[in-house]
Structures are given as structure tokens and as C-alpha cells.
Amino acid sequence: MKKVNIVFGTVYGSAQYTAETIEKAIAKLGFTTKLLQPNALSGFVPPQDELLIVVCSTTGQGDIPEDIAPWFNELKSNAPYLPALQYSLIGLGDSSYDTFCGAIKQFDELLAELGAKPLTETLEIDACETMEPEVEAETWISTWQHAAILASEA
Predict the structure, then answer these.
(1) Residue 63: which of 96, 95, 13, 104 has the closest Cα?
(2) What are residue 5's DSSP bridge partners?
(3) Is residue 1 exposed (0-12), middle (13-18) or buried (19+ Cβ within 10 Å)?
């Protein structure tokens, strides 16, 4: 099975807790996982023979949180070509805002520009509907696992 790198961007900690929760759940499934802290992302280019999961909340007017913004900008400016990379995205947002899950949508656009391919559809978790985004993310893991196993066999 492919190694899974998990990165997160958070303002109040919900995205971090969600990332930690799914990292533990995916590890229990037998995958080798690595949870990267935002301050350790400088110079990190996701290996194309591994899977990437980005968990990110949205702040301001659809903005990327300050903790992960430097890595986002680094990827954008260096523009590594990643045609074999497969990724999954989990966005935390509030649907009462026009820019619902705006940060994760920016990650999706950037990764697509770099040639990467989505492994699953983006999971958008609405704070208006759930106070525990990690629970919704855990439910999503079965969908992710099915796609990841197929990707490993390809």
C-alpha cells in the first residue's frame, strides 16, 4: 500500500484535530502515514509515489490559514510538475459565507495546475451542520480507503 502524507492548515485547531483523527484511522487500516505539521512543510514536495491528504479550514474571505499559507505559496511559485500524485481534500467551512470552503478549493486548483489528480471528491464539512468535523471525516475514510486500494493496485 502507498504511504499517505497528511498536511493541515488551521486557525482554531479543528482542522488539526481532524487531520490527527484521520491519520490514526488510516494507520489502523494498515497504511503507513505521516502527519506533517505546517511549520515543517518548507521545501516539502509531495512524493508522487505516495498519496496526499490536505485538511484545511477557511478563514477570512475564503483565505488559506496563516500556518499553511507559506507552503501553499511555495508550491505555487516553485510549480513542481506532479502528474503522478493523487490527492484527497477535506475542507472545513461555514456555508453561511459566500466563500464556503474557499481555502480547500484553492488547494484543489493549485494541485490540478501542478498536474496532480484527485483520488476522491473533495469532502466539504459545514460548521452549520456539524460541531465535530472529525466524525464526518472518519465516516469518509471508507470512501477514501476504497479509492486508495484501487490506486495501489494500479
Answers:
(1) 104
(2) 34, 52
(3) middle
